[in-house]
């Protein structure tokens, strides 16, 4: 067991660093445990290593584009678990109503209904899709042109395990109402948190660390969060710049998220040879030290747009929206821009 673990740690260091340090093998195992996220500092202090290792290669596992979003993702058509005032559509209904389709240029579109007047108490038709395949780590790259935003809307690109919160939840792109900045959030079972002193040094200067406790307990599902100050990251600011890429790496070190507005997408992403070592300081980092990756398993990736509900409904007035959320959703003209336009989602595994 110990020797297997030693081998594992050596592999880990080789994978994360561009070089391997063979003397790590002689360190007591415990001195490494709980210290993985200091790798970059340690690497800097050691200078050149006697052993050259190839840098981590990422191999494409899945590439979802165009019709794949309709064929390889499930359409969730139950009641919204977050109590949104939506009727999520089956694939057949979503396609028939023009709420899920592929444009001539290959862009996949997921819409909120914008043609139906609602009576009191009626829900608006919307779409929630999730990958048929489940993931237990990897490098996930989502290239998004346009996202829904505005009063009553609560769009999200996220991933979730089964038996929530036990399988964990990773919210990559999410917000409500007139919000102009993205919030990145993790929800989990007990024993997962952000340690602000550690993490605030590792994320971009334009990120603020929010709630530190990731575990959901009782009715407190706040989760632990990072806030992007950059208004390119969400809503109108995201859309007028042609959207961008959210990339997240989920590996033994933790979960790391980068955001690139369209004009700044690294060429290694565009060319299909992603190299996170070149992407600079991330927008969010949940370190495995303070949140074991055991909290996350069998994740499906999800895109959805809900309305009102536990978050957008609760903050509707406070966010400067008129009247009540349930009245606001009656008028279809409030939803002419309520759609996702997706270029692709790619999933890579390290090799
Ligand atoms: C719904 O929104 C689209 C733009 O996304 C627009 O082209 C269409 O005319 C709208 N539908 C109605 C009934 O206004």
From TrEMBL:
Which superkingdom?
Answer: Eukaryota
UniProt keyword annotations, A-Z = Glycosidase, Hydrolase, Signal
* Database matches in Gene3D superfamilies: 2.60.120.200
Q: Which residues form the GH16 domain?
A: 62-320
> Any keyword Hydrolase?
yes
- GO BP term, example: glucan catabolic process
Q: Which SUPFAM superfamilies match?
A: Concanavalin A-like lectins/glucanases
Please name one Pfam family that this protein belongs to. GH16_XgeA
- Where would one find the signal peptide in this protein? 1-20
Which molecular function GO terms apply here? hydrolase activity, hydrolyzing O-glycosyl compounds
- The answer, when asked if GTP-binding is one of the entry's keywords, is no
Record-stated family:
Belongs to the glycosyl hydrolase 16 family.
PANTHER family associated with the record: GLYCOSIDASE C21B10.07-RELATED (PTHR10963:SF24), GLYCOSYL HYDROLASE-RELATED (PTHR10963)
The protein, known as: Glycoside hydrolase family 16 protein
**Protein's organism:** Dendrothele bispora (strain CBS 962.96)
């Amino acid at each position: 067991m110990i020797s297997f673990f030693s081998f594992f740690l050596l592999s880990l260091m080789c994978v994360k660093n561009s070089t391997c340090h063979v003397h790590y093998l002689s360190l007591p195992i415990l001195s490494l445990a709980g210290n993985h996220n200091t790798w970059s500092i340690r690497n800097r202090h050691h200078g050149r290593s006697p052993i050259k290792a190839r840098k981590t290669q990422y191999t494409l596992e899945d590439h979802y584009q165009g019709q794949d979003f309709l064929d390889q993702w499930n359409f969730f058509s139950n009641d919204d678990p977050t109590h949104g005032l939506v009727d999520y559509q089956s694939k057949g209904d979503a396609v028939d109503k023009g709420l899920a389709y592929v444009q001539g240029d290959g862009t996949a579109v997921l819409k909120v209904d914008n043609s139906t007047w609602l009576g009191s108490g009626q829900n608006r038709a919307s779409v929630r899709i999730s990958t048929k395949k489940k993931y237990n780590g990897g490098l996930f790259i989502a290239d998004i042109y346009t996202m829904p935003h505005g009063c009553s809307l609560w769009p999200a690109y996220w991933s979730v395990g089964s038996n929530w919160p036990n399988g964990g939840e990773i919210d990559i792109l999410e917000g409500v109402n007139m919000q102009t900045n993205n919030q990145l959030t993790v929800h989990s079972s007990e024993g997962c948190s952000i340690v602000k002193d550690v993490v605030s040094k590792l994320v971009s200067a334009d990120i603020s660390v929010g709630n530190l406790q990731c575990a959901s307990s009782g009715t407190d599902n706040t989760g632990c969060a990072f806030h992007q100050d950059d208004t390119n990251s969400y809503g109108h600011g995201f859309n007028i710049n042609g959207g961008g890429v959210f990339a997240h790496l989920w590996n033994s070190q933790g979960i790391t998220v980068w955001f690139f507005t369209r004009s700044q997408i690294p060429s290694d992403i565009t060319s299909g040879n992603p190299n996170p070592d070149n992407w600079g300081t991330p927008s969010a980092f949940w370190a495995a030290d303070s949140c074991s990756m055991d909290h996350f398993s069998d994740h499906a990736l999800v895109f959805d747009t809900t309305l009102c509900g536990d978050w957008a409904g609760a903050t509707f007035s406070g966010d400067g929206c008129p009247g009540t959320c349930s009245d606001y959703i009656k008028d279809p003209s409030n939803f002419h821009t309520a759609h996702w336009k997706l270029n692709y989602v790619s999933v890579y595994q390290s090799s």
